[in-house]
Design brief:
GO terms for molecular function: UTP:glucose-1-phosphate uridylyltransferase activity. The chain is built from eleven helices and 13 strands. It is α/β, with parallel strands linked by helices. The strands form three sheets. A nine-stranded mixed beta sheet has the order 5-4-1-6-11-8-12-10-9. A two-stranded antiparallel ribbon has the order 2-3. A two-stranded antiparallel ribbon has the order 7-13.
């Protein structure tokens, strides 16, 4: 760190139907995880890895996202008058995190299509893609390791995590070969949401990618797959199979990850993060034990 000028893309155009009615008028990315919206954790992760240029792909009725990363003079002025410096600092923090841009996806045609919408902004830069459903604990850095691996190999780098084989059908699964590092593998193939008996491994693809701009040409010619969507996985599969290219590598993440795309896991994420906070944990942890004893 700092790396050559990586940019980041955060797809945030999903409808959030699993969280209705909460997401009827609020983007799912703005749902709070303790006291920050989920997307702010993702933006902070990118900036901690040294990325200062971030493009957020949004859909209709997502203006709250751009508003969150803009200044609010009336609110800030009121906090100044009250002398509430702590809250003022928290409000202003999101204003100054990075150089944040927005583009609409238009018709939602899948993750691959969302990434393709970033082409004009990314240009010929390598870039990271961070999905907002996966929150990575800042104490367990992942993205920096992935950027380092891309610098070393020039390859596409994806994040992998070992999951219970019974749950692999919920993820993309990677076929891999070992490398000299126990936490880095070479990806030879990808299977989207396989049955447990058909999965090439229990290494699941989670929502972090470091891509080269070559991916755009592949996505341009990728035919829609399941659900009529353009799948990023299909493009990665082609890059992994290209014997003349730098290939695809996977960084195996063994740290703390919070899945906020599922209602139960979203609640678990709030509980886990709140319990670890110095300002909340001392009061919450004893209460958790008392509550658990009543179940």
């Amino acid at each position: 760190m700092p790396h050559k000028p990586f940019k980041a893309v955060i797809p945030a155009a999903g409808l959030g139907t699993r969280f209705l009615p909460a997401t009827k008028a609020m983007p799912k990315e703005m749902l709070p995880v303790v006291d920050k919206p989920a997307i702010q954790y993702v933006v902070e992760e990118a900036t901690h890895a040294g990325i200062e240029d971030i493009l957020i792909i949004i859909g209709r009725n997502k203006n709250a996202l751009s508003n969150h990363f803009d200044s609010v003079p009336e609110l800030e002025g009121n906090l100044v008058k009250k002398g509430d410096q702590d809250r003022l600092a928290k409000v202003q923090q999101s204003n100054d995190l990075a150089d944040i841009h927005f583009v609409r996806q238009g018709e939602p045609k899948g993750l691959g299509h969302a990434v393709l919408r970033a082409r004009s902004h990314i240009g010929d830069h390598p870039f990271a893609v961070l999905l907002g459903d996966d929150l990575i604990d800042e104490r367990d850095p992942l993205l920096t390791t992935m950027l380092d691996e891309h610098d070393r190999t020039g390859a596409v780098v994806i994040a992998l995590m070992e999951v219970d084989p019974e749950h692999i059908h919920m993820y993309g699964a990677a076929a891999v070969e070992p490398t000299d590092s126990p936490d880095v593998v070479r990806v030879t193939g990808l299977v989207e949401k396989p049955k447990a008996e058909d999965a090439p491994s229990n290494l699941a693809v989670i929502g972090r990618y470091v891509l080269s701009p070559d991916v755009f040409d592949i996505l341009e010619r990728t035919e829609p797959g399941k659900g009529g969507e353009i799948q990023l996985t299909d493009a990665l599969q082609e890059m992994a199979a290209d014997s003349n290219g730098p290939g695809v590598y996977g960084v195996v993440f063994r740290g703390r990850r919070y899945d906020t795309g599922d209602r139960v896991d979203y609640i678990k994420a709030i509980v886990q993060l709140a319990a670890d906070r110095e300002d909340l944990g001392p009061e919450l942890r004893p209460w958790f034990k008392e509550f658990a004893a009543t179940l």
